[in-house]
DNA sequence: TTTCGTTATACCTGTTGAGGTATAACGAAA
DNA sequence: TTTCGTTATACCTCAACAGGTATAACGAAA
């Protein structure tokens, strides 16, 4: 064992999000929710896939749509299937934006954790 | 106004910390607390300077000392002045480690926020 | 052995927010 | 015009947590 003694394993950790003046707009969970809505075309099914209540999913979406100028999710109710939800082009842009940001962040965490052989 | 229309101001945001298997060890607030303890040599005065209760400061210190193998803060009670607290060499190392990590993180946030002219 | 300011710890309480449940609204299709 | 599954929203409850207050422990100095 060279310079480093027997060591307590340390990790660089953190959470990131994109915010407006109103506060948090999208983070990891909300982006995943958008991706599930895109996949299923349904808020309810997206919520089930993430093991969260419909209520919570709806609140997150409502908050996003309120804070962003343009809705990230558009939903309709009634009709065939009872209703549906789709992710807008704006929503897609946020997904891409966050995932790019997050990728760089994860690289930083990994790099810093390396330095923690301490 | 070139490629970007009138825009909603977005910011890359986040929080970071250093964690062990037991969870969070030090973040921004705890590092600041260590710095204040170093400055004042007193848990109570450090807490006052940060406008937190002595109780909360003590709990944070206790948690850090428990999770780290080596105490980050050593305190004595009784005697001249009623007691005192000092930051150990290990504590100083965590301060330096976190501040370095945080500096790179702040750079990432600033850089990403640039890309959010979106 | 009394004083004093700090460290250490127990205890109690209000708040807030996470979460579930219930129900209304809706519109296409049969 | 009835059915159906989903969206939308109101309402209620309970636990966890933040935070304050009170008090014990401590030891150097006077």
CATH topology of chain A: Arc Repressor Mutant, subunit A
- Assign the CATH superfamily of chain A: Winged helix-like DNA-binding domain superfamily/Winged helix DNA-binding domain
| Multimeric state | homodimer
| The level-1 CATH class of chain A | Mainly Alpha
- Tally of structural domains of chain A: 1
Secondary-structure arrangement, i.e. CATH architecture of chain A: Orthogonal Bundle
Q: How much helicity do the residues of chain A have?
A: 40-55%
Report the sheet with the most strands of chain A, covering strand number, pairing sense and barrel closure.
2 strands, antiparallel
List the helices and strands and how they pair.
The structure is a homodimer of 118-residue chains.
Chain A: E1 11-20, E2 23-27, H1 28-40, H2 43-49, H3 54-67, E3 73-77, E4 83-87, H4 89-115
Antiparallel strand pairs in A: 1-2, 3-4
Chain A binds a DNA duplex (30 and 30 nucleotides) through residues 42-44, 53-56, 58, 62, 75-85.
